[in-house]
Structure formats: structure tokens, C-alpha cells
Amino acid sequence: MIRSKFKTLFLAVCVTMMALSMIVLPEESFEASIRGLNMWWEIVFPSLFPFFVISEMLIGFGVVKFIGVMLEPLMRPLFRVPGVGGFAWAMGLASGNPAGAKLTSRLRQEKQITLIEAERLVAFTNSSSPLFIFGAVAVGFFHNANLGIVLAISHYLGNVLVGIMMRFYGYSPKETFKQGRKKIPIMAALRALHKTRIQDKRPIGKLLGDAVTSSIQTLLMIGGFIILFSVINKLLFVLNITSFLASIIGKVFVILHLPSLLTIPFISGLFEITLGSKLVSQVQESTLLQQSIVTGFILAFGGFSVQAQVASILAQTDIRFKPFFFARIMHGIFASIITLLIWKPVYINWLQHGHFSAPAFSMGRHTKNWWELYTASSIHYGPLITIWALAFYVFILLRQLPSHSSK
């Protein structure tokens, strides 16, 4: 009872302090809010919207069930999750945070996975996309395409280790599974696809409308969290709270032989990975290895902004958030350790001295790299995509109003 009252008081004080800070610092709050809105408006919405809609359609048409039967011999023994988890894993890897949580929640709502399986699955299906790791971080911030290979290996290998670790979460001796077949169960997969499609009696138009509505509702929620945490991050920095926390974490960094100047970027990255990664790349008093270790942890941890998005998505189901949060900490530790272990054999011996380089990200000295071209196109076409998608969303809602009012 006392703990609950203390939690209530703590949350009330935090929200009140934030409101007062926004009143006292309106210009800084406004700039941070615009920054978060631009990120969602230009990049996040156009990037994730197609993935979310296609995912909903694939679930409705039974394709996910088909993939689940096909991947059962791999996913079940390795991660103790059904084969449909392979679809969530692949889509989460391709489209980035928080697609894995979105798909896991849908699979749970469809009752294709149990509660324990869902909590195992969401722990390792959320990751940064290759586009973000190579384009934004490696090339955009560090101006080093080869560094993207190291960050990608540590990030995705660390996620696999998290999945293997989480296979023991909630394990019961009663939990058994059939051994994978030697032959690919193609016929069983086709039967599952047809059965799922028959059971979903919605016409194609209805299915598409539901997919758009669900996807945009999720993306609106994501946009709200991006803007909110952009403001929180800025206020913490202006109020010197970030510096105070940095003085505490700096003692841990000294033990780990990391420069104390990386503490403020690290704390910023705990809230928002894009800003944190950019600030880490600007610390000239540290080595590239030290920057990579800290950046690897930031990318794996995901930031409180992404975690709040995931928590909001999981709240629509019975999936608990604590296992996901624990997995993010372990992912950060794994990614940092892997970065340290592979630095010399991969980056030094192979990428630098082995005369190997990542795919060319720029064609010449005066030519923009592919991330700059992507960002420029996002600024021009991203808002247009967002406007049309929101207009279509409003159109669907207006069409549904008469049916609800008649009832």
C-alpha cells in the first residue's frame, strides 16, 4: 500500500515538474517538439506504414500461417516459439522498431501463440533496421560505411543471443514440441494457408480498410511518443539533469575504461537512439572502438522512446512488458561485448587491412551518399505519403460512422 502511494506521488511530481518546465522553457520545448514531429512526419510514418499494412494483409490472407508451418522446424527448437515467429522476426529486422512488437501483439490477438511464447518472441524481434544502422548511424553520423558492418553484426547477433536466452524464460517440463521433419512440410503449410483464409470471412475491401486503420492508429501513437520523448530529452538536458546523471554513470565508465565525455551522449541515447548516436559520434576525445561500444549498447537498448511505444502496443494484449525490458538490457550488454570481441578480427584485420569495404555509399567527392539521397527524398515525398494515408484513414472512419449510428 505504501509502495503504491509512493509511486502515485512520484509520478504526479514528475508530470508536474515536466509541465512547469515546458511553461518556463517554451522555446526549447517547441523546438524539440518540431524536431520529433519532423522525424515522424518525414521518415518514420512513410517507412513503417507500408510494412504495417502489408503485414496485416499477410495475416488475413493466411500467408503468415503458411510461413509459420514452414519455419516451425527452425523456430521451435531454437527459440521455443512457433514458426509464425519467424515472420515477426524477419519483418521486425527489415522495418525496425517497433514492428516486432506490433506483429507479436497481432499474433497473440489471433491466438496463434501463447502468452509465454509471445513474451519470448517480442524480446528478440525488435531491432534497428539495416537502413538506420548503415545509413543514419554509420554513414550519416560517423561517415564510415565499414563501421556499419561491425554495428550490424553485434546488433543482430546480440538479438539472436537474446532469443536463445529467452527460450528458457517460462520454461516448464510439460512444454514439449515435435521434432522437425526432414522434409519441408509444404502441403501442411498450404492447407494451413487455405484454412486461415476461409476462417477470415472479411472481403478484400474490408480487410484492406482494417489494415489501414490499425496501422495508422499505431503510427499515430508512435508519433506521439517520439514527440513526447524528444521534448523530455531536451528538457532534461537544459535543466542539467542529464549532466547530473552523467556524473553518476561516469564512475561506471571509468571502471569500463570509457571516457567520461561519452556519458552525456549515452544518457541521451537511453531516451532517444538517433540523438544519442549522433552525440556519440561527435566526441572527438574517444577512440572509434569506444564510440562503437557505446553506440552498440544504445542501438540495442532501443531508448525509452521505443520502449514506451512497445509498452503501449503490448498493453492492448496480456503480454507483460518486464521481460521485454530485461531483454533490452541484455541485448545492450551482448552487443557491446560482441563489438569489443570482433573489433580487431573484423574491423581492423578484415575491413581495413584486408582491403574490403562496405558497398559504396557515395559515388564521388561531390556526390551525395545514398542516405543523404534517401533523407532528401523523404523530406520531399514523406509528408505527401503521410497526408494521403491520413486522408484515407479519415475517409474510412467517415464511412464507418453511419453503420455505427444506425445500430
TrEMBL record:
Entry annotated with the keyword Transmembrane = yes
The protein in question is named Sporulation integral membrane protein YlbJ
Q: Which organism is it from?
A: Heyndrickxia acidicola
Q: Which residues cross the membrane?
A: 50-71, 121-142, 148-169, 207-229, 261-281, 293-313, 325-343, 379-398
Question: Matching InterPro entries, A to Z?
Answer: Gate_dom (IPR011642), Spore_IM_YlbJ (IPR014226)
Keyword annotations for this protein, in alphabetical order, are: Membrane, Transmembrane, Transmembrane helix
Q: Where is the Nucleoside transporter/FeoB GTPase Gate domain?
A: 44-140
Signal peptide start-end: none
